[in-house]
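Two proteins follow. First one:
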Amino acid sequence: MVNDARGSGIKLEPHMIPKLRAAFQDAQRQLEEVVRDSGRSLPMTQPAMGDAASHAFQAEFNQGAASARDQLTAYQARLREVDTALGEIQAAYDRNEQAIAEDLSRKLVT
């Protein structure tokens, strides 16, 4: 969990975070559709013809398709991680703003 907004190594202005999160969440939704649709259309269940070349192509195609799907799934997980980190950074900014507001309030009262 990010406790300090400066702990990420990236300088983000607080107003930028909601737009960044929305972009990452949109990318996640798009990837969900691609991964879901690939599960319906892949793997190639039968070779085009009964010859050895068709069987070899089917095996190569299915191997490549599985690898590509695994890579998309890993990318999707990374997008979720970034979105979570951005949420934690936003929370750290919010906590910091709250602490500053409380400190200023105390100074006004005294």
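Second one, unrelated to the first:
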Amino acid sequence: MALASPHHTVREDWLALVREEVIDPAQPIFDCHHHLWDRPEGRYRSEELAADIGDGHDLRASLYVQCRTGYYENGPEALRPVGEVRTILDWGRAQPQFPVGLVAFADLQLGADVRPVLDALIGTGEGRVKGIRNTTAWHADPAVRSNPRPAPDGLLRTPAFYEGARAVAEAGLCLDVWAYQSQLSEVAALARALPELTVVVDHCGGPLGIGPYRINDAACFADWRSALAEVAALPNTRIKIGGFGLSVMGYRYADAPQPPHSEILAADWQPHVAACLDLFGAERAMFESNFPVDKGQFGYRTLWNAFKRLAADLDASARDDLFWRTAARCYGIDDTLFTTSTGRTLS
């Protein structure tokens, strides 16, 4: 039985009500976090991604992040996620840079026994499997839910997960972690225990704005920033800036008669983005779209315009860090994708 999605519904007719001019169209971009799926609540496969990436901004490459798409229906349970890698590669044959890399799923609760699964993912991935992510976001309040299949409490704390994460590092892969602000101490403990592992914190470290939280409440913000600072103090951590369209963050742009302008998004997000940059620096931070999850609240062109507004006061090197360089280095993507001219003037 299909489970109800906690995400806002994508409405193309609503998104079409606002269309902005593209800001700084020559800025190369690596969208380091998106999903692809074909679900009862909507389709977002390579064709839909291509329409978004072709809408004015200079998108050079993208990174797919696991979301249970295309698992094998048969065979050993632990190896069924290998089907996701095969599916995404097959969907993207026409535009192999979208995605140029994948963050796959391997059950790290297998501990050291996850190694054959990692080998199978890498062997199937044609050199494009760059990282692993598990479903780990958990909160005691049932209102705080960002996954149709919420994780149980404690996955990030188990000895098995630590052993599995160690195997990820040994395989030369990154570990993406989606955790709420209430779990950031667990993320810090993991990164501290495994300094050889690159831990990429998704969606600004999960600032919350529902249930007992309010996104613009000073105390909630202070708690999030303090917890994120513990993570940022560890040199093997990176952060993805985005995910503001997630229902758990508390923004309700989807309720308005028209989608928001990038000026509104930039103003709303500025405190969290500024904190991420202050704690991590541009050299350890990267902008992400989190599409199609966030597409229920704003369009792709508008999103990247908002990020460009937020980065406008930075120098060219820091902007490149945020828009492509940090992610390319983190995931081992060839820099020439972003530094070679495509016929447009590069910044």
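SUMMARY FIELD: The chain has one domain: 25-335. The two ends are 49 Å apart (CA to CA).
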